[in-house]
Amino acid sequence: MRPNTAKKRLKAGQPAIGSMFTAGSPLIAEIMANIGFDWLAVDLEHSENSLANLQGMLQAICTTSTIPLVRIPCQDVVFIKRALDLGAYGIIVPQVETAEQAEAVVKAASYPPRGFRSWGAPRGLLYGGSDYFHGAGNEILIAAMIETRRGVKNVREIMSVDGIDTCWIGPNDLSVSLGHSPEVRELEPDVEEAIETIKLGALAAGKAAGIQLYTSEDANRRIAQGFRFIGLSTDVRYVGEGARANLSSVTRER
Amino acid sequence: MRPNTAKKRLKAGQPAIGSMFTAGSPLIAEIMANIGFDWLAVDLEHSENSLANLQGMLQAICTTSTIPLVRIPCQDVVFIKRALDLGAYGIIVPQVETAEQAEAVVKAASYPPRGFRSWGAPRGLLYGGSDYFHGAGNEILIAAMIETRRGVKNVREIMSVDGIDTCWIGPNDLSVSLGHSPEVRELEPDVEEAIETIKLGALAAGKAAGIQLYTSEDANRRIAQGFRFIGLSTDVRYVGEGARANLSSVTRER
Amino acid sequence: MRPNTAKKRLKAGQPAIGSMFTAGSPLIAEIMANIGFDWLAVDLEHSENSLANLQGMLQAICTTSTIPLVRIPCQDVVFIKRALDLGAYGIIVPQVETAEQAEAVVKAASYPPRGFRSWGAPRGLLYGGSDYFHGAGNEILIAAMIETRRGVKNVREIMSVDGIDTCWIGPNDLSVSLGHSPEVRELEPDVEEAIETIKLGALAAGKAAGIQLYTSEDANRRIAQGFRFIGLSTDVRYVGEGARANLSSVTRER
Amino acid sequence: MRPNTAKKRLKAGQPAIGSMFTAGSPLIAEIMANIGFDWLAVDLEHSENSLANLQGMLQAICTTSTIPLVRIPCQDVVFIKRALDLGAYGIIVPQVETAEQAEAVVKAASYPPRGFRSWGAPRGLLYGGSDYFHGAGNEILIAAMIETRRGVKNVREIMSVDGIDTCWIGPNDLSVSLGHSPEVRELEPDVEEAIETIKLGALAAGKAAGIQLYTSEDANRRIAQGFRFIGLSTDVRYVGEGARANLSSVTRER
Amino acid sequence: MRPNTAKKRLKAGQPAIGSMFTAGSPLIAEIMANIGFDWLAVDLEHSENSLANLQGMLQAICTTSTIPLVRIPCQDVVFIKRALDLGAYGIIVPQVETAEQAEAVVKAASYPPRGFRSWGAPRGLLYGGSDYFHGAGNEILIAAMIETRRGVKNVREIMSVDGIDTCWIGPNDLSVSLGHSPEVRELEPDVEEAIETIKLGALAAGKAAGIQLYTSEDANRRIAQGFRFIGLSTDVRYVGEGARANLSSVTRER
Amino acid sequence: MRPNTAKKRLKAGQPAIGSMFTAGSPLIAEIMANIGFDWLAVDLEHSENSLANLQGMLQAICTTSTIPLVRIPCQDVVFIKRALDLGAYGIIVPQVETAEQAEAVVKAASYPPRGFRSWGAPRGLLYGGSDYFHGAGNEILIAAMIETRRGVKNVREIMSVDGIDTCWIGPNDLSVSLGHSPEVRELEPDVEEAIETIKLGALAAGKAAGIQLYTSEDANRRIAQGFRFIGLSTDVRYVGEGARANLSSVTRER
Fold first, then answer.
1. Cα–Cα distance between A221 and D25 in angstroms, integer?
2. What is the CATH number of the domain that holds C182?
3. Per-residue pLDDT band at F198 (split at 50, 70, 90)
4. Sequence-separated contacts (24+) of C215-221 with Cβ below 8 Å
5. Is A146 a domain residue?
6. Which of A77, C194, E111, E236 lies at a 20 to 30 A Cα distance from A6?
């Protein structure tokens, strides 16, 4: 069974740095997979991707040693099953608010007797190896997004669920859930407090803490705070920010 | 007929700044079209795009006022016809080496009596307007890439062809054609000399001079030199450079 | 924030006329968007469309000022979230039968504190504008399909739910639910009675009443009756009826 | 209404032999549809197919007289509705464990008054005929997969549900549910016992018994045991086994 | 070998009525194929179709007995080969201007010894039958578009080429070539004269005469004049005209 | 620069065994790439593949160490450029009949000064490595199909062209060119003779000889005769033959 090197890093207490694909370009997927991220996630929640192009995005990542993940759009079993069958080596699960939800996700992602995942993983076997049935449980990474007031309240119970490997904080949704605006430069104090609560909840359960952020400064700061599962911006932010900065520095009128 | 504002700027001696899509993401196309470029070109030559997704890319650009162009992969009439029928408001033509080639391109892009373009432009009419048949000749932009030793030699004749609006220099292919490597930080003296020759050839014919480059510094320098049709990097370079810079600034090992 | 002109018309008591895409052709989408409909809906319920081509269909509509809507296939949060994130400026929701269902739909379509919609709307921001987070609640249109016996019974409670802007009657499903056949030329009296009940329910709640129909005669009759959110046939009916009428008038045998 | 010849065979006690598409190639779909299978199912559960390419796969099958089915990925109404609207003449439903689930599936697949399927079946009418509304209930085939311990326990109740036409055993998932490994050459005794229990449950309810298998030997053995709804391997197994066998017989080193 | 019923009709002096797909919707293709046209052509010249979706469009048509044709975008051998390999039972060839061009097209479409078509027709065999190699020459239909001044001049030589089955006049391009505008309601006298010349040229060579038109009135008139290969509007015109007529009859302001 | 292991084997006199994708399934591509072929070619000549899905097929192969090739549909520079830019590590060129054609192909596939290939190979660099510009000439494999009477006549000159690495015989087209039928079980004596002539022509030029065949018996026989570049059937033949054999062994009537 192919080892999940991103999960291994988390277990060893090391940062696992990744990014996310909002766009559906397999060429960009392969370009970013060649840069050296530990993991890259195809976003199925807020993106132009869908189940129709997911396999192609995963194959693009799998031309390299970067670990392919999928952010599923909800906790529905169909998305968990398809993402894993198509070779994702882990899932990022949005809006986990209770331990029951976390447990249901783990069950959907696990073969019996731990769960009820159905057999038939065409790319799972190709990518993971012929011992996929017995090894998948160890290698697949499950990240629970804690991004609502209710999720923060239940974070310890959620993170204690066996099979949940890390949390992943979405600061925008967390801000919104706490009554603020998204996309702010500096998070509100109660949001920072909630982030700290989530981190402590994960650590208390012996799990890695994770968070989505956008700059290397934030990444280094969060790593220093103890975060390890780090999402470093997205493909479309890189292109949007790069193009905007470049164009705005050109003197156009003559 | 919708005015081609990018072509208008060139005619007025103003810079028309654009960029190019190597990736086939309509989301990225729309994001970049909202940034303020004068034009954006879907690349069919060195990219993951094809005739199959071209319409979608053009529609994405056309949700804004940015002018949609297409770099065709060769001078074949099929690509000229399809790009324009699908609503491109101009074409960038690779490896133009003789006036005969330039004339053939203009003929393929022009309705009789100037040329032999066939009638039937579903998106041409939607985007350009109901007077497309009579107005297309004035609005459509044709940029001839001068990127080989032979093209440099014939630049004045090429640029004198009626219907060729601007040249567009590809410094990588030009370097290669002159015996150097592509993708160098600083162009060789003979490449710079050829670039100057091309520019003078365009200006002598009363046409705009254009060039592909990557940084705003280069853009400002080339504009100061008299270049006006400016290609400012590509979508995949923005994402690749942005992600690489970001990741390399994160301290990963702890 | 871009104003939702179709919603504005409804609020002003004016008819908002639209149609629906059963086919997945972005070219047809753009052709119909240039005809002057107030809104056009991409059908994800009974069509060849899916989440995979939805963005392209919406971008085609968004090359014009016609307001883009989506008929989602069920009330599941995934479809509500994706349709809006991809830039739909409203959703048509099938088989709404209770106020609880209507409330759940509005919550899924609204950011906190009204609802629990998750942040991250790549095309929402491009189409709506940078103040999308604060403005979306006002501009997004939600139409509840009342098309079953149970829905008719609960129509007043459904239409009273804050955030439901209009009803939309599906006469075929309503006929079937009341024990009749679909696709009849003249609706049964009890179906007409139910339609009147629904209309009155909407008006009583201060909301617009809407209905799907096929001919301009029916449209004018329903508008005279007080209906305002008018669905005028579908793309595939136009092509099927046009081709059938044309071919049947040709004398083929000689 | 076009007769469902596969369902007819089952009703007449004859074997109905089919296979399944894990790959999303419409060319392979048409090739296999020309071989003489009674039915062919597009797999949406463990495959590279999705709602985006489903119509194309069904159209490929429908160039022949082979009956097109769809294995849906879960019991959700969206997949039942879309598969049938797009012209599937039956569905294979995974992990049916209770009569309540079976009843819900039949309701979702049936027009009122039997169920609550919504009207609007673009390819249903093209393929089935203009009397689709009244005839669909008779022709559409529903196969319940019994593949878990709980399903085995409830098999008689499940198979007694009016509208369930046959069971279909997934030996891999059944083995896994009973604590064994999937993909074994010889099934464990308790799995064989469960298979016998399921078969008897179907026969007791006057329904056909079905099973997925891989070799013609197994097919003949199961038919002799009384099974009639026979799934004979899959497209990707044919290609994988054929290529492997061929390559391994070539002497490569010289 | 499956008989080409459209070609048969032409040989018998009967009208063969068809239409054309500018849109790339396989659902619309199947809807129109169920209406009763003798043939339907997928347009690769002025459309949103490409080699990428051609097979799907042809399969949609091939669910019925309507004969599938392709209008290729130019006379290049690649398009002739691919269209036929994918199961087209004939090609419509644009801008044929000389007998040499016509001969080259026939050679590219014919197996040796008549031509040099390469073997390997995956859908050709599925659709045509196992004797495709020997039968294709008889069944495949080749229509030469005569739509330029030069084509008119050479029409007799073109139509005398063995293997050219019919001409097909494009009145828009013909008008344009003769110095007029396209899309006029009434053709100019010299255009009508050229149409008569082309028809006589075809008849003199013992071949059918054909023409593209839009209304049943024109169809009946042209059939009365002796035309037999009749193109009756296009999918997107049907939808555009139907929607425009419908909407314009609705009283929108109240 | 990544070594082309298939080319290396040919240079070392070892057989390089591959197969071809007529279907466009990236899942099947990855399954076959995991079986152990030295190379696999995406067919763009007689297949359902096109430039639109080519990158995805190549990425699927590139998840393994199997070398990705493309059979281009003709000798046009566009297909050579696009196949290589998208990461193909070689091309199979149909119907090479003269040394001039072979030379033109090599030029189109080679950067200056050897040829005139244009710079810009997004996947070329990702797959080949950062020294792609200087290394591509050594690693890219060019196989000339000799499959016509004229090609046989000129085989020595063709194979002597610098840059042509191997021939590849298409027995079906060769049979057809010599006046016989394709798809015969046993080749005609003059076809066998032509095959021997081609092989000797390749060997005389110090190049490998290659051939397409279908069974391991034929493969072993041809290898014993001295052939080294061996194409072992295709994906769709594997699935067609496997399914047909399996189904025909089942006793269906009871």
1. 48
2. 3.20.20.60
3. very high
4. C215/E246, C216/E245, C216/E246, C216/E247, C216/E249, C216/E250, C217/E249, C219/C17, C219/E246, C219/E249, C219/E250, C220/E249, C220/E250, C220/E251
5. yes
6. A77
Q: Is residue B253 part of a domain?
A: no
Query: In whole numbers, what is the pLDDT of chain D averaged over residues?
Result: 97
The answer to whether residue C186 sits within a structural domain is: yes
At C103-129, the pLDDT tens digits run 999 999 999 999 999 999 999 999 999
Q: Is F52 on the interface with D (CB under 8 A)?
A: no
With CB atoms and an 8 Å threshold, state whether B51 touches E53: no
Give the C-alpha separation, A159 to A166, whole Å.
7
Shortest CA gap F141–chain E (Å): 23
With an 8 Å Cβ cutoff, are E25 and C26 in contact? no
Domain membership flag for residue B202: yes
**CB distance C27–B63 less than 8 Å?**
no
Contacts of B26 in chain A (CB under 8 A): 48
Tell me the residue range of the domain where F93 lies.
5-245
Q: How confident is the model at residue C39 (pLDDT cuts 50, 70, 90)?
A: very high
Number of domains, chain B: 1
Is residue B50 within 8 A of residue F50, CB to CB? The reply is yes
Q: What is the pLDDT of residues F205-226, one digit of tens each?
A: 999 999 999 999 999 999 999 9
Of E2, E8, E11, E46, the active-site residue reads E46
* Tens-place pLDDT, residues E90-103: 999 999 999 999 99
Residue of D46, D150, D153, D180 marked catalytic: D46
Contact yes or no for D118 and C94 at CB 8 A: yes
Measured CA distances, C78 to A70, A104, B16, C120, C125 (Å):
15, 18, 42, 13, 19
Which 3 state secondary structure label does DSSP give A229?
strand
Q: Looking at the predicted structure, is the pLDDT value of residue C254 above 70? A: no
The shortest CB-CB distance from D27 to any of F14, F22, F248 is to: F22
Report pTM: 0.98
Beta strands in chain C (DSSP E): 16-21, 39-43, 67-71, 90-93, 141-146, 166-169, 210-213, 229-234
- Do E123 and E85 contact (CB within 8 A), yes or no? yes
Buried b (16+ CB within 10 A) or exposed e, E41-78: bbbbbbbbbbbbbbbbbbbbbbbbebbbbbbbbbbbbb
A46 is catalytic: yes
Out of C2, C8, C11, C46, pick the active-site residue.
C46
Angle between the N-to-C axes of helices D26-33 and D51-61, in degrees from 0 to 180, rounded to the nearest 10: 30
Residue D136 has pLDDT above 80, yes or no: yes
Predicted pLDDT at A83: 98
Asked if D62 reaches chain E (Cβ–Cβ under 8 Å), the answer is yes
D111 contacts chain C (CB < 8 A):
yes
Cβ pairs A/F, distance under 8 A: 39
Q: Tell me whether residues A122 and D236 touch, CB distance under 8 A.
A: yes
Round to whole Å and give the CA distance between D177 and F244: 32
Tell me the residues of chain B between 25 and 44 that have a Cβ less than 8 Å away from chain A.
25-28, 31-32, 35-37
User: pLDDT-based confidence at A28, cuts 50/70/90?
Assistant: very high
When CB atoms are compared, the residue of D27, D34, D126 closest to E30 is: D126
F103 CA to chain B: closest CA distance, Å? 19
Q: Copy the structure tokens of residue C90.
A: 């409203």
The pair of structure tokens assigned to D153 is 């326990």
Chains F and C touch (3+ CB pairs under 8 A): no
pLDDT(E84) > 90: yes
Q: Is D63 an 8 Å CB contact of chain E?
A: yes
Query: What are the average pLDDT values for consecutive 10-residue runs of chain B, which has 254 residues?
Result: 98 98 98 98 98 98 98 97 98 98 98 97 97 97 98 98 98 97 94 98 98 97 98 98 97 74
pLDDT-based confidence at residue D252 (cuts at 50, 70, 90): confident
